[in-house]
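Reminder: ligand-aware prediction takes two inputs, not one.
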Amino acid sequence: MVVLDNLQKGHRAAVADAEFVLGDIADQDLVNKTVTRYGIEAVVHLAADSLVGESMQQPGKYFRHNVGKGAAFLEALAEGGVKYFVFSSTAAVYGEPREIPITEEHPTRPTNVYGATKLMIEEMLRWYEHIYGLRWISLRYFNAAGADPSGLIGEDHHPETHLIPLVLQTALGKRPVLQIYGDDYPTPDGTCLRDYIHVTDLSTAHVLALEALAAGSPSAVYNLGNGNGFSVREVIRVAEQVVGRPIPVEVAARRAGDPAVLVASSARIKAELNWRPRYNDLETIIRTAWAWHRQHPDGFARIMNIDYSGARTINGQ
Ligand SMILES: NC(=O)c1ccc[n+]([C@@H]2O[C@H](COP(=O)([O-])OP(=O)(O)OC[C@H]3O[C@@H](n4cnc5c(N)ncnc54)[C@H](O)[C@@H]3O)[C@@H](O)[C@H]2O)c1
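Here is what comes back for the chain with nicotinamide-adenine-dinucleotide:
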């Protein structure tokens, strides 16, 4: 396995058991050489700018980075003879939900530039299949959450915008208070409901997607969520149980463009790729995240590289 990352947001220490190539996906020469040198047939494309709010303030940056660099990357891969492509897409392609749970048939009308850029890449993929025969699977993630059950690898974003790390950083005293953006939504407790999918289940879906493509499956789009909506207040309540202490919160104004409820139907990927989420209860998701944050309050900052030799998952495997 080879990881190519420009480290604009990623961490070198998080790449433990793969070759690492430092560089940008838009560097076609580098991508070409990497494809040739390692004989690469399949690519998982995770690189993106992915801050919804920023995408509405700097739309040009998102079109240039996600779409422009994505196009250069795809071109280099197709010309290099790559056959299979798995793409990190997002629930943001759907926009304001018309019905819950959201299936892949739901209309795609993004309400932010970030979601629009992901939809544009999906459209490009259809053309690359038509012209080059590249087969692809687009995985539309809902909220990725949790940490590797070994406790050795987890979220470390700057800025952090995801709820669970924010809650746990507040529990650690790294933030004075957690802000709840609106408690007057039409939901049981007034806070937004989101679908959290554990990163291990997410990564399993990528492996299944690659295996399916290699076995001849057609290109496809799949939602990835666990089908349960948890409110912001539920996340905080379960986090308080896991960490064993109260977490200070304050209610702030709603953020523009936040739908009240976002919950996925993942029936299609379950039926077609036999995907079975294993870590789909909120407590397990938060417990794995807490193991990471508690042991690594500064994220990857003090980790040079990760030694997986003594790693154990929560199931002891
Ligand atoms: N985290 C979520 O909840 C979520 C939800 C839906 C979709 N996604 C998508 O999943 C993917 C991964 O998300 P994440 O939360 O891990 O984001 P992240 O920012 O932590 O990871 C993106 C990685 O891509 C690298 N990168 C960005 N631009 C690059 C470029 N031009 N060349 C080389 N490397 C580059 C970054 O350094 C980073 O390591 C993204 O495409 C994101 O849009 C994430």
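Residues 1-141 form a domain with the Rossmann fold fold (CATH 3.40.50.720). The chain has a mean pLDDT of 93. We will return to this case in the review session.
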